[in-house]
Design a protein that fits this description.
binds zinc ion
């Protein structure tokens, strides 16, 4: 079964939701996309019944703290095995050059040299250029520069179970990507808050979308299933409220996952 397991659906400063990150799971394995900002990533994987040691492919979309810092805890957890030479299969970390710079730079300051060396000996960095395609767990992923305003951010597209899926990271879609996204079966896009609450959360001022804004664009692009994440956390009935607002503007299927919810690609 092909699934997207949302380990977290929150924005960068949520306490009760984990930061947005997820696993794409198929019969060949687990592909981790972003890592959240803390050691909670290991716990979330455990709650999703995924052994973190089984993960051999990780994509980091951009260098913001809520996407990249969990990776260091991932490294720290595998530290003993790495130092003891017990990791035989390399872990592939796919990222753009800025993310790579950030990982190497931060590791230098927070890990002892020996640990950093031993970890990086079992990590294979795959530095992504715009439109590079790599096969991960039997699926071809094409990674692209999302032309984000704040930071160098990569998204990807892939065909999974005959469905075209696109992940756009955590900034509003740039219009240069419209042709790529048009007609997609599944689009994963951030939605920071309801449009009616933008005065509280200021999504549009901090390079994020309201549910209404993204839903209108995805309707115009004829997208079939819209997955919304990277949200605020003040509503216990977020799924209901966000879905309702989205459906006013978007006629496809709206999916507002809760943390640890699995979305089956069918
Ligand atoms: Zn973020």
């Amino acid at each position: 079964m092909n699934k997207i397991i949302m380990l977290g659906t929150g924005n960068g400063i949520t306490l009760n939701l984990f930061n947005t990150c997820f696993v794409i799971q198929n019969e060949n394995g687990n592909f981790l996309v972003d890592t959240g900002g803390s050691i909670e990533i290991i716990k979330r994987l455990e709650l999703a019944n995924i052994d973190y040691e089984s993960i051999k492919h990780i994509f980091i979309s951009h260098s913001d703290s809520d996407h990249i810092l969990g990776l260091f805890w991932f490294f720290k957890k595998m530290g003993f095995k790495a130092m003891s030479g017990l990791i035989n299969e390399k872990i592939n970390v796919y990222c753009n050059d800025k993310v790579h710079e950030a990982i190497k730079g931060v590791a230098k300051y927070i890990f002892p040299d020996k640990l950093a060396n031993d970890i990086f000996n079992v990590v294979n960095f795959v530095i992504l250029n715009d439109n590079d395609t790599y096969t991960i767990n039997g699926v071809n992923y094409t990674f692209f520069d999302a032309r984000a305003k704040k930071v160098k951010l990569f998204g990807f597209e892939a065909i999974i179970n005959n469905q075209k899926i696109a992940f756009l990271g955590d900034e509003p879609i740039d219009s240069s990507l419209y042709d790529r996204i048009r007609g997609c079966d599944y689009v994963m896009h951030e939605a920071f808050c309801l449009d009616s609450e933008d005065y509280i959360f200021h999504a549009t001022k901090i390079h994020h979308s309201t549910v209404k804004n993204v839903s209108k664009i995805m309707e115009s692009l004829n997208v079939k299933n819209l997955i919304l994440y990277h949200t605020e956390e003040t509503h216990v009935n977020k799924k209901e409220l966000y879905t309702k607002e989205s459906q006013l503007y978007f006629s496809g299927k709206v999916i507002v996952p809760n943390d640890l919810e699995a979305i089956v690609i069918e």
